[in-house]
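Let's practice the habit of predicting before peeking. Look at the sequence and jot down your guess about where helices and strands might fall. Then scroll down.
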Amino acid sequence: MRDPQTLRCGNLRMEFGKRPYIMGILNVTPDSFSDGGQYESYRAAIDAGLAMVEAGADLLDLGGESTRPGAEPVSAAEELDRILPVLEGLARYSTTPVSIDTSKAQVAEEAVAAGAAMINDVSALRFDPDMARVAAETRVPLVLMHMRGEPRSMQQGDLVYQDLMGEIGKFLESRIRLAEQAGVERNRILLDPGIGFGKTPEQNLTVLNRLEMFLNLGRPLLLGPSRKSFIGSALGKPVDERLHGTAAAVAAAVLHGAHLLRVHDVDGMRQVADMAWCIRQERLIKEQ
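Done guessing? Here is the structure:
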């Protein structure tokens, strides 16, 4: 299947099919599953973001509300207090585009006004009825992710799917239609099948192994396997010992068609993604 061709995100022109792109995770939350509370000051968070840029991140994903299983929501005001100083600081020192990881229309709107170049909505426009309007009016790229339920309850209860890949595909297709009806251009949409969101460890493995099935939706695929619990389940490793498992998942994602990888460990995963891409394409990136 043909890759989507290009997508403009701030000053970054992503040309899919030429190489994979790396999104560095920058969480300014006290309770994210992997790096919560790591940055005790705005300056520390800004420095961490700049270090990821130096390590090879094509863009950064800035989040002010945890989406880990069981996470409780925070107010838009608190989320903005966490992310705006960091967003403004990053813009002062770097031209690398920043995505805002939020499901709140107010946060997305104010973040884009402050310089954010992408909206990454894990709810796929479900949690805030005004988000579709904001995405349309700001005209920045929009990530739509599959998740059943909401973060605080997504791993509870019935995780049975009659047709895992088919149900995820239909969900994403329906969210594309909703976004388009609100005025979001199809060529600005990216899709994320939601590794770790409302899925068992085995289901996450299936999504990774059959990722190419989503290429028929015609939009770039973003995947975020970094340090996720399914790696811990597979390898018996705590969150701070999942680097090698993450590398395997990133390689598999690229080999099966992922265009954009959302990761914590930028330097190593940049190399893993590039190597996997060379294997998939049977040629070197420098030949492009």
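How did you do? The longest helix spans residues 76-93.
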